[in-house]
Amino acid sequence: xxxxxxxxxxxxxxxxxxxxxxxxxxxxxxxxxxxxxxxxxxxxxxxxxxxxxxxxxxxxxxxxxxxxxxxxxxxxxxxxxxxxxxxxxxxxxxxxxxxxxxxxxxxxxxxxxxxxxxxxxxxxxxxxxxxxxxxxxxxxxxxxxxxxxxxxxxxxxxxxxxxxxxxxxxxxxxxxxxxxxxxxxxxxxxxxxxxxxxxxxxxxxxxxxxxxxxxxxxxxxxxxxxxxxxxxxxxxxxxxxxxxxxxxxxxxxxxxxxxxxxxxxxxxxxxxxxxxxxxxxxxxxxxxxxxxxxxxxxxxxxxxxxxxxxxxxxxxxxxxxxxxxxxxxxxxxxxxxxxxxxxxxxxxxxxxxxxxxxxxxxxxxxxxxxxxxxxxxxxxxxxxxxxx
Amino acid sequence: xxxxxxxxxxxxxxxxxxxxxxxxxxxxxxxxxxxxxxxxxxxxxxxxxxxxxxxxxxxxxxxxxxxxxxxxxxxxxxxxxxxxxxxxxxxxxxxxxxxxxxxxxxxxxxxxxxxxxxxxxxxxxxxxxxxxxxxxxxxxxxxxxxxxxxxxxxxxxxxxxxxxxxxxxxxxxxxxxxxxxxxxxxxxxxxxxxxxxxxxxxxxxxxxxxxxxxxxxxxxxxxxxxxxxxxxxxxxxxxxxxxxxxxxxxxxxxxxxxxxxxxxxxxxxxxxxxxxxxxxxxxxxxxxxxxxxxxxxxxxxxxxxxxxxxxxxxxxxxxxxxxxxxxxxxxxxxxxxxxxxxxxxxxxxxxxxxxxxxxxxxxxxxxxxxxxxxxxxxxxxxxxxxxx
Lengths: 388, 388
Known about the structure:
The structure is a homodimer.
Chain A: E1 4-9, H1 17-31, E2 36-40, H2 44-49, E3 52-54, H3 60-67, H4 83-95, E4 100-105, H5 107-120, E5 125-130, H6 146-166, E6 170-175, H7 182-186, E7 200-202, H8 210-224, E8 227-232, H9 243-247, H10 266-279, E9 285-289, H11 293-296, H12 303-321, E10 324-331, E11 336-341, H13 343-346, H14 367-376
Parallel strand pairs in A: 1-2, 1-4, 4-5, 5-10, 6-8, 6-9, 7-8
Antiparallel strand pairs in A: 2-3, 10-11
């Protein structure tokens, strides 16, 4: 009997997560003629409910078009299955006759695969294909989805800095990133020189203090007449608690099914506006929440990111033949290479941005951080030097 | 003695306002050899203070690079000169030996030029070159800056709609636009079909009611399982007051030098979040403020917009030779044509979006609105149809 592959997408969508799904599907069509490819709608929920789209015979041009489309074409889910739910998923996979299950997502997704693999006892190959704009998977140099998101925020902050040159003031842009500061650091990837913004980066890896923030902004204003700031939504105070917990009334805090605080609604922005009003009265200040745009903006899909995401999907098919595991994007000093690592090496773990990506005594990229980002997100636009 | 041209940029920057400055400068270098071209820093403030950059002999390649750079390279200003300030500007222009003053901006800028022209009594030619992402200048089919901003928001809402297909819920994006709904309408320019978002458009031209908004969202959710909404920051209630005045505590309302309410800070977003929590409890909802990105995002500079902005600058030089006035971009049924109109025809007036750009009984583009936007902002990306 022909093999059956199930593919699903989990967690927050990215600009290139469909490339991974399409890369896997085309690889199966090529290497496993006659195999069934079932795309589960809305992640493991589709497996539980038997809700599939049959990708087995889908023409390549149609698949390629889906691949070039941002967000998760199969739908996604935030469900974090408990043991009973995992039993339902396993029952669903068996009912579908699955030999392999490729689940595209972040470290929560890897954790789900690990639990399922243990419960299935070897009868099905479980593969985790990496995806996250947070770039926070261990074992990976970087993750599919990150480069496109980084390109968006690099362009956004280059643009906003030009805006604030023209009309000076303070700008704070709140960027996605719960535990890892990579995306916030990427706002500085296209910084032109010492004078240009972003001038201050605040990441979850370093404790945030409102008084120090106000001092930093004041010093930047006196030097540059403007101050452009990038803040991770997940910045935390000295006690390790998310900043939003100390700034926002408890009855307004919301949590998702994973128990994660909702971080990036407007509340954090309002809290920053208030802090600036109190600390720097009379100074023009603007706080924006970049929100979902970085993860799926159709105008900032990076070619390298697309290709790597596609290749990760193709590699996941080979990984299934090797019994499963997690696909990792590593760097050999010259290029990105795919490796298969155990699910346990990635599942539920968070890769933090190395502390030496920032200067020890300033909220700015270090040479090491700059080199990393310039390798992944090379400059795409040449700009003229403004006269102010 | 050789002629002297002063050029300045006013109001909110756009992605292509530098093209107009560069178009004027190159035209002067070409048609008026030996003429001086002085760029005033930060609008009329630079004229008052004698703060200029000499563009007379700047090499064309350097100018072209500035032209391709978003935001106002000369700096901008929100100053709205009173009569005493106008006297200082006139004195500054005379001191600089100016024969012509080309001021690039919106209807406030045209109003400044009108006052100055009257006070100068014909000794200097005053030209207003159009610029605004709001697209709200009378006498114009559309304005330089609008198409790029429209392209950004069209791409942003196409992308966010795909995101909310994958993870259903309610999305509200707050878009710049104080009095005119063109930019908010442009969020729907790349809508794929009746099923796709944005599903609801709220513009300043139509009275906003919170209960009706909640009803609209509920109806959309039951039809599409998600609801993507674009709201102008300037939406007003039945009594003509900005919505923000009825939703936000009076002590938090801020005004600029023009007496304009600060509309697009986080407060309006928070108010929408609260309205959704109250009206549709338990429904996943996300409110983002797009903020400054649409007006200057380097990744969404439209070629037509760039060319028209450049041409408007070149045309402004000819307009100066004809005694001054306002440059208008009109449409002859086949193409955009430049016309010179009196400053009084444009100064201080607001062009509203025609009511028939929206359907009479729904918050959606009409055929007429769709045709207008598709002409200006043709689709740039082909996407695949998601499976959910």
